[in-house]
Amino acid sequence: MTNKSTPLHVAIVMDGNGRWASKRFLPRIAGHKQGVDSLKRCARACDARGIKVLTVFAFSSENWQRPQEEVSGLMDLFALALGREVPQLKADGVQLRFIGERQGLSARVLKGIEQAEATTADNRKLVLNICFNYGGRWDVVQAAARVAAQGLAMTEQNLSQMMALAHVPDPDLVIRTGGEQRISNFLLWQSAYSEFFFSDTLWPDFDEVALDLAIQSYAKRERRYGKVSGQVDGASTPNESN
Ligand code: IPE
Ligand code: IPE
Ligand code: MG
After folding, report:
1. CA-angle at 148, arms to 142 and 154, nearest 5°
2. Atom 13 in ligand 1: which residue has the minimum CA distance?
3. Chain centroid to CA 153: how far?
4. Considering every ligand atom, which ligand is closest to the CA of 33?
5. 15, 139, 170, 172: which is the annotated catalytic residue?
6. Is 212 considered catalytic here?
7. Nearest ligand, CA of residue 56?
8. Distance from the CA of 229 to the center of ligand 1, in angstroms?
9. Nearest-ligand number for the alpha carbon of 186
10. Which residue's CA is the nearest one to ligand 2's atom 12?
11. Considering only CA atoms, which of 237, 197, 236 is closest in space to residue 220?
12. Residue 224 domain-assigned (yes or no)
């Protein structure tokens, strides 16, 4: 069931895996592993609630600066999880898309990405965008470069069409788990009018109850897009009022 209080597109900064592991005296990678299960649960829950697009931040442009052991652990886990989870995701009607810079990724990871996208391309139930080696600034720059390369005018519309998430509408709701209240170079362009929800829950613990809290908060918001409360029409053009 979908209604206007249900966001069509939810985006999530899946933060807090390392702290989840540290609290249990486990290596950080154990938190990332648990994070994969949390993502599977979250995708199912989003689908059950009528959400059509889920975009998650899995690895940022800046995350390469982490200790080499964690970076290689994350790359291994990503490739492994792709190989293991794609058949079920395909069966569940999930379309997987990978958003981010592909240059610099290993041949193994690239192969996993390409196979996952090809296998699930015809699915329509839920679009799951996985932002991997992604940065909002990278996205704006790559879009601008493509606009310029094609000799197009540098307009908002042309730039939007070249952005990495051009295949889906902008996110209605952006959730960040793990207690930090910052964007960390996530969807800088696309979140211009998103509603934000910050959850203290660490990502591996983020369950249906935590998701429903975010959706309930979203449902109470009034999205004004720069207009005034309750305004239906009568918008003026920039020069009309002066
Ligand atoms: C988010 O969890 C996952 C990635 C950035 C890959 P973190 O690894 O940032 O976990 P914390 O924030 O250190 O707890
Ligand atoms: C943002 O989390 C990136 C991902 C969740 C993939 P970080 O843990 O990297 O962000 P900061 O360093 O706290 O800003
Ligand atoms: Mg973090």
Report:
1. 95
2. 18
3. 28
4. 1
5. 15
6. no
7. 2
8. 38
9. 2
10. 184
11. 197
12. no
Let me know if residue 131 belongs to a domain: yes
Considering the domain boundaries, does residue 235 fall inside one? Answer: no
pLDDT digits (tens, 9 = 90+) for 13-58: 999 999 999 999 999 999 999 999 999 999 999 999 999 999 999 9
Crossing angle between the packed helical segments 28-48 and 208-219, to the nearest 10 degrees: 50
What is the number of other CB atoms lying within 10 angstroms of the CB of residue 134?
A: 25
Could you identify the residue written with the tokens 């509603």? 195
CB of 146 closer than 6 A to ligand 1?
no
Pick the closest to residue 42 from 116, 110, 94, 117 (CA basis): 94
Q: Give the CATH number of the domain where residue 112 resides.
A: 3.40.1180.10
| Cα separation, 177 vs 154, whole angstroms | 35
Sorting pLDDT into bands at 50, 70 and 90, what band is 240? Answer: low
Q: Which atom of ligand 2 is nearest to the CA of 57?
A: 6
**Total domains present in the chain:** 1
pTM assigned to the model:
0.96
User: Could you give the CA distance from residue 193 to residue 4 in angstroms, rounded to a whole number?
Assistant: 16
Residue of 184, 198, 199 to mutate, ligand 2, most atoms within 8 A of C-beta: 184
63 assigned to active site:
yes
Look up the domain containing 27 and give its range: 9-219
